[in-house]
Amino acid sequence: MADIKAPVIEPDAGFVQRIMDNGGSTLKKCFQCGNCSVVCEISPDGEPFPRKEMIWAQWGLKERLLADGDVWLCHQCNDCSVHCPRGAKPGDVLAAVRNIMFSHYSGFGFMGRLLASPASLPLLFIFPMVWIYGFIYIGAKPGFMGMEPMLYINMMPEVAVDLAFLPAVGLAAVAAYLGITRFWKELNAANPAKGSLVAAVIAAAIGVGRHDKMSKCIANAPRFTAHLMTMYGFILLIITTGSVAALYWAYKLGITGFEYHEIALSHPARLTVKLIGNIGAILAAAGVWLIISRRYGAGKEKVGVTGYYDSHFIFILFATIITGVMAELFRVVNVAALGFGVYYIHLVFVFALLVYAPFSKFAHMFYRFTALVHAKMIQRERAGAA
Length: 386
Description:
The chain is mostly helical. It has 17 helices and no strands.
């Protein structure tokens, strides 16, 4: 009996306060009835969430919570919050823990801290404004405002765009990789992954593509449509941007005999790219607008708390889409003064969206997908669930 050691619990009161400050202000109302785990449609049968996470959060078990993949298996359907008899809102508490994870796993700690602070917001926009303006100042053709036809590459040549964005996006990719690998290591320390990683990635990707977990939401069912539209719209916009860059460099390298930016709109290549881009813009704009109308409108009680991370991501994503559409429209009607100004603003928002992705709520896609892959490998599924 002398060799038996009881587990030692070391509560972190400061971590409890961080959870409450990040959107989980109702945490201490929980009295552990377990109703939240019962009503959740995607919570696994063994060690279900979010009841255990509510205990850990109340006790300030920081290390255990930050290494818990179930925090990311939760899609904040908020069925648990709607049916909570005490108003403890477990959905908001788990969302608050996820917010903390953005900076905790951040590949570059100082960036995680900057993105977590509303006071840093001006700096986060001033930097890309100055950075991009520098490349415009160096690369713009003299008198570009009066050139015909009106082309944005006359203000910001493709080479300047690549030099301004690729190194910064590359650093962001490194930060994302460091954060994800650290998170994966923590998940494996608690429950080692088994089986085929490739099979798990494919299964998780199919699930994300269908939003099969979110489709089970009841209280917050409209999120399914809004998020699906936003995701596929954004994918189409990425394809559009990549296609334009590929066609431009294909011409420069002599692979194609036409310059994408100078061919007529009726040209098959340009018509196809424009069609994909416009469909993507419509889907993404409509999806984000549905999210905004729910989060800030009549349905906000069922959505949950909208914190700084949420507002920051939604605003930048919506602004990126709208300024992109406006830049296209001003070019079609040939209003140079407005067109070039809006295009510059668009580039700033694109920079903020992509380069800050690993440190903002955009990162939820990386961490949730990682958690879903790990869950597939350890077969952590609710009985009968997809």
